[in-house]
Each structure stands twice: as structure tokens, then as C-alpha cells.
Amino acid sequence: MRTGGGGARIRSVEAFAVAVPFARRFVLGSGAVGAPDARPDQAAAVVFVKLTTEDGVVGWGEQRALPSWSYETAETMAVVIERHLRPILLELTPFDVELFHQRAAKRLSPAVSNGFPFARAAVDVAMHDAAGKLAGVPVHALLGGKTTDEIALCSAIGVGDPETVREHAAQSADYAAYKVKIGGDPDADAAAIRTVAEVAGGKPIWLDANQSYRPSALRQLLDRTSDIRTIHCVEQPVPSTDTLAMQRLRGLIDLPIAIDEGSFSAQDLARVIRLDAADLVVVKICKSGGLRNALKTAQTALSGGLEILASGLTDCGIAFAAALHVFSQLELALPAELNGPELLADLYVEGLDITKAVATVPTAPGLGVQVDEERIRAESIDLAFH
């Protein structure tokens, strides 16, 4: 079967699930993500993907399953990759990214948005890593090249009491901005926002509700914090399916509204733009289904007059590096909230350069990082789906 790109065909596809430990407790509006004294459950593990070509070139991908954030679990990701995406990949080369997504969409038909984007993103990242190595260029060169060498990072402050929030914010003094998670309680959230503002000085604050608010309660929260002039925007205050509530909120509050869980694909965002339901969009590789799909969302945003925010899902090094390559060619409204190095006990790669909360875009071939395969294999868990 003729493929759409050059290079060595993919010979093998392996998936590993690892319950990656956190360095500190981290809570979203939709629930706890992780803590240092407890590994995530299997459903919320990180899935690593290893592609090997016929001539031995290896590409690595990674995505975190987080069922409280989106519907995919580690089990579903592993099943989709091993039973449905592997047969497609074994007919292709790492350069055949668009052909892979076309065939994946036919085999696992998407509904109103993209289908199984986290599983596909893990594979997509691995394909780009291998393709860059085969071509001898960094991934950003495959995407059109970078426009910046460094990306400033935004600190992620989880839902918590004022004392805990103050401690975390103080530990993040090097960061250029703060993303404050809010959980739906106007009193508690106002206290947390005020605490971060005291520590942050004049640095921008990015609120993220993770779908935890009703419009009326959000107005109460913003009324109580109206004197804090450094609040830049509020992200996904209402449920992801309620785009009309996002639209109504734009008429109820003065603060710019960002959409995240409510927009996975470029097509999703086109509907949001038509409804005038957001001012900014959060771009994530995981929900987009891959690197080029994330860039398609970004271009749709720019075409519709929306600003771009960059984020990840507590990535363990591989997906973090992929995000650096993507966001190195975009103009971001705020520093990127790529919080894996901040929140995880350890990363599973070497080669990242992060100094005073500023990450350098890798320049070595592929993703530009060295993956600790021995550790991934040693810590992998049996998902028992066979």
C-alpha cells in the first residue's frame, strides 16, 4: 500500500501506562488530580507510546489520561492505540501524519468533535519525534520553524485554603504569571485569588474554573474581586457543553472569557466564534489530537479574532517538549501553563533546559529529549484489558 511520505515504515508500536507521582497535591474545580503521598489510579495514568521504524529509529509520544477532565482513560487509550491505531501505523511512515489521522477518523468515527484525541495525540507526538530524527531536524522545523527560542511559563496554583495557596504562590516567584484554579465557591475562591494577588505583585492572574461555576455565582466572585486589576481572564467557567452560557456570560461580566474544555478541535472553535462565546481559546495538544491539529485550532482562533493561551495536562517531559515546539511559533496572550516540571515529582526525560521558569525550545532532531525507557518499562502497570 502506497503511503503519503518518505522514510522508513513503522515496524512496531508499543504502549505503556505509568502512574506518575506528583510532587505536591493538585486540585482542579473538577476534582483532585494527584498528590505526593498517593499515585493516581490506573484510569488517570500517563500513556507512553514508542514507535520503531524498520531501520531502528525510535519516536516517543505521551499523554495523560484524566477522566475528571475528559472522557478518555488509560485503559481506553491503550485499547485504541493497540487494537485500532497500530494496524494503521504499521502501513505508514512517521511522515504520514495527515494520512494517519484521516484513516484513524474513518476507523473510529468522530462525533460532533474529534474522536479519541488523547490516544491519537500520543501517537501523533511519537510520529513527529521519529520523523524529526529521520530528517535530522527538530520538530519545530517540520512545522514551519520557531519564531522564539524561549517560552516563559505560568505557575499553576490548585484549589486550596489561603495558607496552602500562599505557600505555593511564594514558591513560584520565578514565574511570569499565575494560573489560579477556582472551584465554584465564591467565598473560598475570592480568598485564594486575593492571596495570590498579594504574592504576585503586578504579575497577571489567569483564573481557571474547570466548569465549576454557574453564571450568577461567577458574577458574585468577580464582584468580590473587582479591585484586583491584574486578573487577565477567566477560563471555562461553565460546563463544556453549555456554549450558550459562555455566550451569555460575555454580556454579564467585563472580564475576558477563555474556552478550553468546550473546544477540542478547529471545528469546535469555529462554532464558538460564530456564537461570539469566547475571547480567548486554550490550545492543548492532547485535546486537539496532535501537533498540527493544535496549530489548526490556533489559526482558526487568529482568523476569528481570538487570542491564544497555551496549556498542557501535567506532561511528563515528552509531551512538554512537543508543546514547546508547537508554541514556539505562536504569539501567546500569557505565559504558557505547561505545569509538568512544576507539579510532578520527576520527569521521564533528559535534555530539557528550564531556567527561572523559562523553557528553551529544543533544537536536537525530533523532540530533542532523551527518554528514560528503562524507567517507563519498569514502572508500567498492567491495565488488564486483554
UniProtKB/TrEMBL annotation:
InterPro entries: DgoD-like, Enolase-like_C_sf, Enolase-like_N, Enolase_C-like, Mandelate_racemase_C, Mandelate_racemase_N_dom. Keywords: Isomerase, Metal-binding. It holds the Pfam family MR_MLE_N. Gene3D superfamilies: Enolase-like C-terminal domain, Enolase-like, N-terminal domain. One of its GO terms (molecular function) is isomerase activity. Residues 162-256 form the Mandelate racemase/muconate lactonizing enzyme C-terminal domain. It comes from the Bacteria. Belongs to the mandelate racemase/muconate lactonizing enzyme family. This is Muconate cycloisomerase. It comes from Kribbella sandramycini.
